[in-house]
Amino acid sequence: MLNKITGLLTAVLFVLGLTFTSCTEKNATKFGIEIGLQLANRDCPMEIDEGEILTKVTLDNDVFTYNVEVDEEISELDFDYANTKEASDDLKATFQLLSMSDKDTKELLQLCKESKFGIAFKYTGKHSGRKAVTAINYTDIP
Predict the structure, then answer these.
(1) Which residue among 35, 47, 78, 107 has its CA within the 20 to 30 Å range from the CA of 8?
(2) Contact 98/73 with Cβ under 8 angstroms?
(3) In angstroms, rounded to a whole number, what is the distance separating the alpha carbons of residues 72 and 53?
(4) 120 close to 87: Cβ distance less than 8 angstroms
(5) Range of 132's domain?
(6) Could you tell me the CATH number of the domain that includes residue 18?
(7) Dihedral over alpha carbons 142, 8, 23, 59 (to 10 degrees)
(8) Per the structure, how many domains does the chain have?
(9) Residue 81 to residues 27, 41, 78, 117, 123: CA-CA distances in angstroms?
(10) What is the pLDDT of residue 124?
(11) What is the reported pTM?
């Protein structure tokens, strides 16, 4: 699942790289990221797992947020678990594992750390409207 969505942000990484070479101010970086996100979001909506649709990727309050619509009748997502520290720890471990073999993931994590941007998955139930967030702070990014 994460391989698909980190690959989506290749455009963000390209624009970010250009932004860092031309200006180091955080506002310029955010502007570059917003352009990259617009490009990446052209592929949305995208099925990332059974019953889970990535609707868009946003930058909310210095956090890359993957907005996911969950069909509770199909998906095995546990909303109660998704809101726990354990889920955040699992997300961190998954990113760490992926960064060893996936260049896009490794670059995304590095740029998030350098830019002080966290990463979150915001889940919304398709039928119930129930919400859950699994997030990691930039200081916890592997």
Answers:
(1) 78
(2) no
(3) 12
(4) no
(5) 2-140
(6) 3.30.300.250
(7) -80
(8) 1
(9) 35, 27, 5, 23, 12
(10) 97
(11) 0.79
